[in-house]
Amino acid sequence: MNDAALLASPLFRGATSEEIAAMLPCLGASPRRFARGERILRAGEPTRYMGLVLTGSVLVEHTDLQGAVTLLGRAEPGELFAEAYACASDEPLLVDVVASEACEVLFLDARRILTQCTSTCEHHSRIIRNLVGTLAHKNLALSRRSLHTGPRTIRARLLSYLGEQAQRAGSRSFTIPFDRQQLADYLNVERSALSNELSKMQRDGLLTCRRSSFCLLCEF
After folding, report:
1. What is the mean pLDDT of residues 127-140?
2. pTM of the full predicted structure?
3. Residue 108 forms beta bridges with which residues?
4. DSSP-derived pairing of the beta strands 30-34 and 80-81
5. Cα distance between residue 50 and residue 86, in whole Å
6. Helices in the chain by DSSP H: which ranges?
């Protein structure tokens, strides 16, 4: 199992490798491997398990009745997904979770996280606090996406998102976690229109970009 991913996970913040190993049986931990494109969790079905990415990455997507896909997020090693649904296990998922590449996921039973184990594990309360913090951060991430998709024009959406990425990186030069199609899905625009707008923004001297690497030439 990928100890580095477990140590990097916000769920286990403050715990050592030995402490995490002791906690995993109490949390009903179960690892599984998935091939690229394989569906990990399906919309319409409830789950009592949250996932922690050990290797690779996964995408959280919403598909509407006409088949249009909106990318809501991406989880990489150490990050959680479906934790809110697992904590409200009677609520069916509104999203699909799909393997972006070959990956390994550690499933954790939310009921066993939220209920103190019979051995009164001394680290259990810390896990619960960490989970609450993770849920709060995910809520803020969804709020940020709402801000980025709020503007009417593609250029305004791009500047909103790329400006935030530059601020988070502390530099005008940065790399985003999405390819072109994923960025288009995240901003809820057509890929061809997004690519055209990026070309115009480069001609206008606002930025330079190559694949997922960007450099903003304007104020942010």
Report:
1. 90
2. 0.76
3. 50
4. unpaired
5. 6
6. 3-8, 17-23, 83-87, 110-114, 124-149, 154-169, 180-187, 191-203
Lookup result for tokens 């206008």: 204
Read off the amino acid at residue 25: P
The amino acid that residue 86 corresponds to is A
Q: How far apart are CA 157 and CA 172, in angstroms?
A: 17
Q: How far is CA 165 from CA 13, 81, 133, 170, in A?
A: 24, 21, 21, 8
pLDDT score at 92: 95
Q: Give the C-alpha distances (Å, rounded to integers) separating 75 from 101, 150, 204.
A: 11, 23, 34
Average per-residue pLDDT for the chain: 92
What pairing do the DSSP bridges indicate for beta strands 213-216 and 207-210?
A: antiparallel
Kindly state the tokens that stand for 10: 């916000």
d(CA 217, CA 220): 9
Strand order in the sheet with 49-55: 30-34, 103-109, 49-55, 80-81
Q: Which residue has the tokens 């972006």?
A: 100
The span from the CA of 121 to the CA of 4, in Å, is: 22
The whole-number pLDDT of residue 58 equals 97
DSSP 159-184: HHHHHHHHHHHTSSEEE-S--HHHHH
120: left (phi over 0), alpha (psi -120 to 50) or beta: left
Output the CA torsion sign for 110, 111, 112, 113: positive
Query: Token digits for 172?
Result: 């005008």
Cα(213)–Cα(220) distance, integer angstroms: 17
